[in-house]
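[audit] Reproducing an earlier prediction to check determinism. Same input, same settings, fresh worker. If the tokens differ from the archived copy the diff job will pick it up downstream; this log only records the rerun itself.
[audit] input (378 residues):
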Amino acid sequence: MKWPTLMIEDRVQAAVRWVAGFELPEMGTAGTLAVRAEDAAMFASDVISQRLAGMALAAIGDGSLEAPSVVRDRLEHSHRQWMLQDLALERRLLAVTEALEEAGIPSVVVKGPAVAHTFYPDPSWRAFGDIDILIRGREWDRAMDLLTGLGLRRKQPEPRSGFTRRFGKGATFESDDGFEADVHRTLAPGAFGLWLDPDELFERSVWFALGGMDLRRLDDTGAFFHACLHASLGMRVPMRMPVRDVVQIAAEGKVDWAVIEDWATRWRMRPVFRHAMTLAASLFGAPWPVEARRALVGPTGRRERRAILAYTTDRRGRGGTARVGLSAITGVRAKAAYLRALVLPSREFLAWRAGEGRRTSYLRRWLVPLRWLVGRRR
């Protein structure tokens, strides 16, 4: 009884991968694909969950993808909802960016609309669920106060005051009507976010047009770098879209591979590039040029190897990113401040981590790493 189910799952996974690679430059999807009636429900669900409805509908529209009408109806409904949401997010992005600029706080749009409107054949192919902006570290506190003044609230408290400004990736803000914005101090959590230089990326920003305004985005090289970070470090098992971004930006953008090679060495990013580009090659058959492959070769230190495993293996669920983050912090006092925030966070943070209605205590928090250690020994 399990064999037919596995066969259906295999077919659906292959079909979803086909959709994710639809019309990739220089490696476009060959031929046509027909979705079987018995695969229709699973195929539609997987395409929607991977945010690929726009690409699937484009493939149906040009005759490359044949699907039952029930699939088309579900995809159209889902895609319409995503596009309405994304248009609303873009309007809020314009308002937030304008408010920041008026306060003398420049920002850079990362991912989302910056990628959709710059690198994809049609921005509707690249759905997104929130907005992401990068703020210079020296403007961090002012930006937090301004966003709070706009009626937005932080979704989660810091372990201790000032933790994000020194060690964290950023903060998520939300509004009563469901708007969500990720405000970044750096572009990755943990060690890799501490090793890179966000100010250098900020200085490489360029302009793009959105809704009648000119906004900053990462230049093509920075956008490729961030796509690799997101594909490698965003989730232990990445969604198809972030991996597609890696290939799409490399194909459509003007990536300076010499700079990528420099960052791979100077910022200890070689494992990130290697993981993201290898993943893209295995998923889409991306034919990386010789100059791109140089970022993959070369020595990789023990700390970098341990760091990438903390994101991409089960170590992630056992505090791996926090541990390697400690190794990337320089100075005894800074390490002590980092550990103190994690071991003795504020009561507000404890309550948020525990969840509404659940008891909180430092003992409960200290038992978590103890269980990690016990499970690791077993």
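[audit] rerun output stored. Observation attached for the diff report: The beta strands are 33-34, 65-66, 107-110, 131-135, 153-154, 170-174, 180-184, 206-210, 213-217.
[audit] end
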